[in-house]
Amino acid sequence: MYKMKVFNNTTKVVKDDLEQVILPNSRISIAAGYFSIYAYQELKKQLSKIDSLRFIFTSPTFASEQFPKEKREFYIPRLKRETGLYGTEFEVKLKNKLTQKAIAKECADWIRKKVTFKSNSTQDNMGGFLNVENKDDQKLTYMPLNGFTRVDIGCEKGKNAYNMINKFDAPFSSEYVQLFENVWDDDKRLQDVTEEVIETISEVYQENPAELIYFLTLFNIFSEFLDDITDDVLPNDATGFKNSVIWNKLYNFQQDAALAIINKLETYNGCILADSVGLGKTFTSLAVIKYYENRNKNVLVLCPKKLKDNWMTFRGNLINNPLEKDRLRYDVLFHTDLSRERGDSAIGLALDRINWGGNYDLVVIDESHNFRNGGTTNGEFDEKENRYLKLLNKVIRSGVTTKVLMLSATPVNNRFYDLRNQLALAYEGKTELINSKLNIKSDIDSIFKQAQRIYNNWSKQPPELRTTDTLLKQLSFDFFEVLDSVTIARSRKHIQRYYDTTEVGTFPQRKEPISKRPKLTTLNNAINYEQIYEQLAGLNLSIYTPTNYILPSRLSNYMDLDSEDSRRLTQSGREEGIRRLMSINLLKRMESSVHSFKLTVKRIYGQIIKTIKTIEEFRSNAEITVRDIDYNDLDLDDQNIDIFWVGKSLE
């Protein structure tokens, strides 16, 4: 009875089935575009015992083409088929294991004994399939089959969205067996290329001069980039930035990063430097800033308030500025300055008079993960932008083309969308500006959506299946293309492995953590941490939840109850979030010192007393000062929570 079986090459793999059906003295016939020694390696145990294997290259490979020169196939696809014998682009991991030589020798010996290759020498299209014939008159066919590679038999994930293979038995398989026989015997269409295949595979294990290996290595590493390189995207040494103080203070791996960043900024308009903590992201970015300032470009640095001293020192005429001779002149603003309408910036610029649009050629965002949540608006008419949208609309989209360099050791928290939102600053939130520049098949939003879906499914798997290798195999090539194009992320192990670290020395060894639980005080019967937390959790902090005291009949006077924003998260919900945030930050103050905790508690207590007094003294025509608190501007990771300093003006 006729049976058909379907393999998705994910949970049901063709290789596993072939291991069962290829028996001693089996006869195998394959028509496909590729043959790889690594596919042979996967089935070596079974293939070594077969009677014979016949292989037809479905497109001209090693053959003399029998059609006019002007119609001949472009050289590169044919070259890939021929070099694919010893590994396709998806089998690069196996190539890196340096076992290729031994595998090639075994495969060449096997071909001499068991295999005959022929190639289509015409322009006729041929479909791919694989036939297995056994002595008991069992005939099986697998199709469609693009190639005899590890991808096609299910051992690797290729670029295809799916890789479905159907398996037929008689009588349908008999038709494919007869089809192969008819094509195989057509000398006008096929040309024997067995010797050419053996010769090509033999080149892998032959001894070659060191010079040849060196030049072949360089060619294979850089060939795909040569056509894309132009002087427009390479750093211009004529600017003199390599004579600067900052450039000569960089280690070799930091100099490489600076040059790569400039190339990515010029090519894609943006870059995320995500090197591990301690590898000098700030100094690397200062070299990039110097390059653009030497080209008479205006630079804006956006940083958290806690990093003010770093950036202010390097631009100032100060005795402790090691880069004073470079005369860096970039502007400095805090992340929270984007949420403010008045007051002065860190360098004394009046926020209400800053020329946001049309003036900054480069924006450097330190701790860029603080912008990972993207943009939202609020207000009755969506008139108030959060800091992300203000940066996007007022700085990046308006005026001159603005390049964006983002610095973060942790650009992703727990969502790939975190990375997408940061990258969107580089292409102004308009996907068409980046899609055309990247070598991707899908658009960038779809790539991140798919990656997030894969991650969500992966995170739900049991621990034994939830491995890094499993996740990487499922992510698409387009996703890695995006990462390679617009991000630089290196660890200390990477630096030690690929760079001469003589100047750097050895990185400090991370010791095993020592857990200690000291008491808050040596005083007997004193309050402990748990009791303090319980006390803080019990605080009403009603000053942050005023809507709890508005009559239900009056709520519509203070908020639009029918808006989409109100349906997602109510105003009272936002205020409750602020209240909890304040409780947590009181504990964070205790991390600094008991004295800091004491000062902050006194400050909050004083503000509560002041508010109660204001309420008690309120008269119908009295003027009182009201401050609008925007929950979207409170960012715990940023640690720039100005509202936490209760009673203090932002100005």
Automatic annotation (TrEMBL):
Keywords: ATP-binding, Helicase, Hydrolase, Nucleotide-binding. It holds the Pfam family SNF2-rel_dom. Residues 262-429 form the Helicase ATP-binding domain. GO terms for biological process: DNA repair; replication fork processing. SUPFAM superfamilies: P-loop containing nucleoside triphosphate hydrolases (SSF52540). InterPro entries: Helicase_ATP-bd, P-loop_NTPase, SNF2-like_sf, SNF2_N. One of its GO terms (molecular function) is ATP binding. PROSITE patterns: HELICASE_ATP_BIND_1. PANTHER family: DNA ANNEALING HELICASE AND ENDONUCLEASE ZRANB3 FAMILY MEMBER (PTHR45766), SWI_SNF-RELATED MATRIX-ASSOCIATED ACTIN-DEPENDENT REGULATOR OF CHROMATIN SUBFAMILY A-LIKE PROTEIN 1 (PTHR45766:SF6). This is DEAD/DEAH box helicase-like protein. The lineage of its organism: Bacteria, Bacillati, Bacillota, Bacilli, Bacillales.
